[in-house]
Write a structure and sequence with these properties.
67% of the residues lie in helices and 0% in strands. The termini are far apart. It has two domains: 136 residues, no CATH class; 69 residues. Helix 2 crosses helix 4. The chain is an all-alpha fold. The longest helix is centred in the C-terminal third of the chain and has 33 residues.
């Protein structure tokens, strides 16, 4: 995993790989019950094991740390997740839905690291990535769309929906009274739906391709009795 250039640099600054290896070993020991008194079900029952609050709290701490470490790996493989853009102002609903994140979405990702050493290292490697920063600058230099223009892109997106279930989800979000006076929040909700629709369509496409690969037999490999 440290073959990734960003993660390799984060590892140099924080010892990421060593920490992950150590945490994984500790979690594995908890799950697989090292020790002769808990190495199989019969011995475990004979030992009359009791709930241990201290051990449980330690497990939770290791689990949370592991989630943070793996989250850092995800960010390094998708470094744009720390490079926010003014998504609606620049793209409306016509932008690449899986490529850029707006400032609010990036803030959610940042908050999961609690301003710890990992976040500082991630910030440093992303800021030093000239290609990412140029891409961000190019997006920010685009002219802002007006609210009417954004509404037009939303209308185009709604007209592109083919399934009733998708149309219903978007309709319910737009008619929700709680967000009627907050169009940016409303747009964010619908944008997340758009991203989910794109993701689901991509997964369905991949599934169809995999099924095709698994079931289709090349002509030269067909059994003789199947050849007319």
């Amino acid at each position: 995993m440290c073959g990734n250039e960003y993660l390799s640099e984060v590892d140099k600054q924080t010892g990421w790989a060593t920490k992950l290896t150590d945490d994984y070993r500790r979690l594995s020991n908890f799950v697989h019950s090292r020790g002769k008194n808990a190495s199989n079900l019969w011995l475990w029952q004979q030992a009359r094991a009791k709930f241990n609050e201290k051990a449980w709290n330690e497990w939770i701490e290791f689990a949370v740390t592991t989630v943070h470490l793996m989250s850092a790996a995800v960010v390094c493989h998708f470094p744009r997740s720390l490079v926010p853009v003014k998504y609606f102002e620049k793209f409306g609903f016509d932008g690449p839905p899986g490529l850029f994140l707006d400032h609010e979405q990036v803030q959610v990702i940042r908050s999961s690291f609690s301003n710890g050493p990992l976040l500082k290292a991630l910030d440093a490697v992303v800021r030093s990535a000239a290609e990412l920063q140029k891409e961000n600058s190019d997006v920010e230099s685009l002219p802002d769309l007006t609210a009417d223009a954004i509404t037009e892109t939303l209308d185009r997106f709604i007209r592109s929906l083919k399934t009733p279930s998708q149309q219903q989800q978007v309709k319910e979000a737009l008619e929700d009274e709680r967000f009627r006076e907050f169009p940016t929040v409303q747009w964010s909700i619908v944008l997340n739906m758009q991203r989910n629709f794109v993701r689901d369509a991509s997964l369905a496409f991949i599934a169809r391709k995999l099924e095709l690969l698994q079931t289709e037999v090349p002509k030269q490999e067909q059994p003789l009795d199947a050849i007319p």
